[in-house]
Amino acid sequence: MAKKRIYEIAKELGIENKVVVNKANELGFDVKNHMSSLEDSQVSQLKGTFNNPTPVKKPAKTDKKGGKIKISVTSIRKNEKNQDDSKKERDNGHNRNRRSNRSRSRQDQARQETTSKQVPKSPKPAAQDLLKQLKQKQRVDQSTMTQPAAETRKLDNEDKQTPKSSEQTKPSQHTVKQVAKTETGSATVSGPKIIKPSPARMKSSPEVAPVSKVEMAKTNGGPEPVKEDKRRGNGHNTRNFGKPGRKGSNQNFGGNNNYAKHQDKRKNKNKKRQFDPIPKKQPTQRKERPLPDALVYEVGMNAQDLGKLLHREPAEIVKKLFMLGVMTNQNQSLDKDAIELVAAEYGIDAQEKVHEDISDIDSMYDKLMDESKQSKHQVKRPPVVTIMGHVDHGKTTLLDRLRHTHVSAHEAGGITQKIGAYQVRIDDKPITFLDTPGHAAFSNMRERGAEVTDIVILVVAADDGVMPQTIEAIDHAKSAKVPIIVAINKMDAPGANPAHVTEQLMKYNLIPENYGGETIFVNISAKTGENVDELLQMILLQADVMELKADPTQKAIGTVIEAHLSRGRGPVADLLVQQGTLHTGDPIVVGNRFGRVRVMTNDRGRQVEKATPSMPVEITGLNDVPESADKIVVFDDEKTARSVGEQRAQAALQHARENVQHVTLDNLFDTMKKENMKEVGVVLKADVQGSAEALQQSLEKIEVEGVRVNIIHAGVGAVNESDVTLAAASNAFIIGFNVRPTATARSQAEADGVDIRLYSIIYKAIDDVKAAMQGMLEPTYEDKVVGNLTVRETWKVSKVGTIAGAFVDNGYVSRDSEVNLIRDGVVVYTGQVASLKRFKDDVKIVKQGFDCGLTIEGYNDIKVGDELEAVEQQEVKPK
Ligand SMILES: Nc1nc2c(ncn2[C@@H]2O[C@H](COP(=O)(O)OP(=O)(O)OP(=O)(O)O)[C@@H](O)[C@H]2O)c(=O)[nH]1
Fold it and tell me: What is the pTM for the complete model shown?
């Protein structure tokens, strides 16, 4: 048999180590401390010296006050814990607890020694009674136990009867513990106090509940009862509970019953986990959603983005890319090739999503226009007509006639609201006329990208024929590829010669049908209304040929014809709906403005709820006045419309700032006042250094009302691009003295709006700058020959004088022109044009290739063959 150490013997005897050591020494054994070991025979001898060979029952504690002895289960458990944990304590080195145990043992022993002298070695009657009660209760509990639990209990008791060391018997840790508890429990029953043996406490007491609920449940084969760990954290330091190696200082191993309970619970819990009959819930299998038909991607997406689109895990995408030779992680942006590889790997198409700039309403307009042209919902729409022609040929008269006869005649009360366009009805078919005659309006609209006109009506006066502006109108219409209907007007006039006009027009490739051409000619009188209906019919015919269609189902797009600010109604825009249908309340962006269609009025002044294609309407509800030719696009919501409008307005403002007008000598005075300038910037270039310096000194001396000249740069040589760039950036102008700008500098200056002034006399430059700063710079004018004429005929008319019948060889002559009369190469006379006529009508201007009749103020000696130079004064900038 192995040797036994003193402390083991002491433990068995329930005596303090020191006492045993002393006794061993008394017996002559070689014992130094509690760690000293003894032979088996020595142990028996030593044990024999103690009167009580069985473990000593400690005397019950006497209550100081009443002398009443209380035995608590807690105390019992504390003691058994002391016993049970002593080994653990050794290992764990919890000296503090050990010290406390030792001191407690010392006290107990001292008490025992005293008590052994005074009282018999048995528990006090009161304590015995209590124990009895306790045991009785336990028996009751035991009898109520389930059969398997009782069996377990029985087994346990059997174990108790055949005590074994914990090392030898290890059927299960729990059982060992229970056995240990049972052994020590009987020895240390007389422990400290407990007030009330609660069932919970009894449960963990070795005598009361050797079998835990867990075990009971296990034996039953049923599921473990729900753990009653409700008190967890109640009065405990829950942080450190049950964490081996992290025992907090507040954990009292020696006497903390709660800790023991907790340990039990933990063990039970672990066992429960180990033997839980309920199978663990399997992780739910993730159902894979089907792949999309196509991968609509944007360059720069990462594996996570693609995972979302493809309904796949990002890791799977990364893996796929890895297999394809693309090393990436989930967050790394992927290029087009990598994304398309992934799509191909999944066997689906890849479509790149092109980012659409919603603020680019011009592109949106074009896109919607194209879409509507492809639409299946297209229906016939009214034609949009512009009337063009030479001055005084009757455009306004025709428009007035149409408006009054064909609009007001059908509407009671006539036109109440004049808007920039109106609809005329013939046989109940509407025609939209733009109410702005002349090619200027047409070309202005075109210049801004607005092509709203379907048909041009070219008005030519039958008594005048083709005139310069007629030709211009033809050119404009042709370049816009808009078909022309010729209306030969003034058929009622005495000198009307439609055949002549037709002949003239044929030169411009406008060939009437009866001459084998395709152009429609209608002879009308805007004044009398003759054939005006026929003209309208011809417009409808032309429209039919053109198959003008639109899709009224889509969102409206249109163009502003005119806009103004109304005092009562705010910004008002006259617009033409070109495709789709515009509804009241639609959120819109118009050019750089935005809003919601508040009130919509048609060309007859009636409020309407919707406007269909080719319908001119007036709308209110915009945040500001738009410009003519601005595009209109409808948005889904007002918020987007607002943000787009604001974005566009901001961009326009930025653009305007970039194109800010630079200071020039001409605007210097105004700019100084407006911008509160303190100095005038000048870039100075001269032929020689001396001139540059002289000019610089003179200019820097100029001071007008506290404003001085600041020479930003002075140098020698031609004005070059960098001078222009510098001047543009510094809002300065350039003075060149005896130098010229280079060709590129000149064009750049024009583009940037930089003023270049060239001088060859110093004082002239200084005077000009001074005068400009004082706002007294006079513009320079120069006589310029604008046309050359040859006198072909002369008439002498009384009271009028001599009328020269002249032909304009080149350029033009106007009513404001001055003429030089040249005879045999000599300027004989210079005077103002007194009157200018074409046939019988006064005209403002006669251009190259036309005859005219003119008189010269104060000069009648005009002869056939005389040459006339038409001269006009034009403002010139020094070169
Ligand atoms: N006899 C006659 N005179 C006409 C006819 N149509 C217009 N006129 C006259 O021609 C002149 C000019 O007519 P407008 O309608 O002002 O001509 P316009 O082309 O609009 O002229 P601008 O506005 O200057 O471009 C006016 O005196 C009209 O009365 C017509 O059919 N017969």
Answer: 0.44
Q: What is the pLDDT of residue 601?
A: 92
Give the annotated binding-site residues for GTP: 389-396, 435-439, 489-492
Q: Which of 157-161, 334-338, 858-862 has the highest mean pLDDT?
A: 858-862
Please, are residues 466 and 501 in contact by the beta-carbon 8 Å criterion?
yes
CA-CA-CA-CA torsion sign (62, 67, 70, 71): positive
Distance 42 CA to ligand 1 centre (A): 149
Pure H helices in 325-451: 336-345, 361-374, 395-403, 439-447
ipTM for this prediction: 0.98
Rounded to whole angstroms, the Cα distance separating 57 from 115 reads: 12
Residues having CB within 6 Å of any atom of ligand 1: 389, 391-397, 437-438, 489-490, 492-493, 525-527
Half-sphere exposure of residue 235: CA atoms within 13 angstroms, side-chain side: 8
What phi and psi values does residue 765 have, to the nearest 5 degrees? -65, -45
Strands 801-814 vs 781-797: parallel, antiparallel or unpaired? antiparallel
**527 CA → ligand 1 middle, Å:** 8
Ligand 1 centroid from CA 400, angstroms = 11
Q: Residue 559 — pLDDT band, cuts 50, 70, 90?
A: very high
List, in sequence order, the alpha helices (H) in 164-292. 173-187, 199-204, 213-220, 257-275
Pocket test for ligand 1, best of 386, 388, 390, 392 (most atoms within 8 A of CB): 392
pLDDT in tens, 152-193: 444 444 444 444 444 444 444 443 344 444 443 333 333 334
Q: What is the rounded CA–CA span in Å between residue 386 and residue 382?
A: 13
**Which residue has 């015995």 as its token pair?**
128
Q: What ligand 1 atom has the least distance to the C-alpha of 393?
A: 19
Per-residue pLDDT of 709-720, as tens digits, reads 888 888 888 898
CA of 872 from ligand 1 middle (Å) equals 28
Compute, in angstroms, the gap from residue 154 CA to the centroid of ligand 1.
130
How many residues would you count in the chain?
879
Q: Which atom of ligand 1 is nearest to the CA of 438?
A: 25
Q: Look at ligand 1, atom 28, and give the residue with the nearest C-alpha.
A: 394
Share of the chain above pLDDT 70, in %: 67
**Alpha carbon distance, N-terminus to C-terminus of the chain:** 130
**CA of residue 150 to ligand 1 center, whole Å:** 126
Using CA atoms, how far apart are residues 344 and 295, in angstroms rounded to an integer?
A: 10
Which ligand 1 atom sits closest to the C-alpha of 528? 31
Residue 833 in contact with residue 818, Cβ under 8 Å? Answer: yes
Assess contact for 127 and 189: CB atoms under 8 A.
no
Which H or E element spans position 703?
A: strand 703-704
Q: How far apart are CA 864 and CA 790, in angstroms?
A: 8
Substitution site in 391, 396, 535, 839 for ligand 1 pocket (most atoms within 8 Å of beta carbon): 396
CA distance 590 to 572: 11
Which residue pairs from 122-131 have beta carbons closer than 8 angstroms and sit at least 24 positions apart in sequence?
122/57, 123/57, 123/59, 123/60, 123/69, 123/189, 123/190, 124/60, 124/62, 124/69, 126/68, 126/69, 127/60, 127/69, 127/70, 127/71, 127/190, 130/69, 130/70, 130/71, 131/71, 131/189
Q: What atom of ligand 1 comes closest to residue 399's alpha carbon?
A: 15
Closest-CA residue, ligand 1 atom 30, reads 490
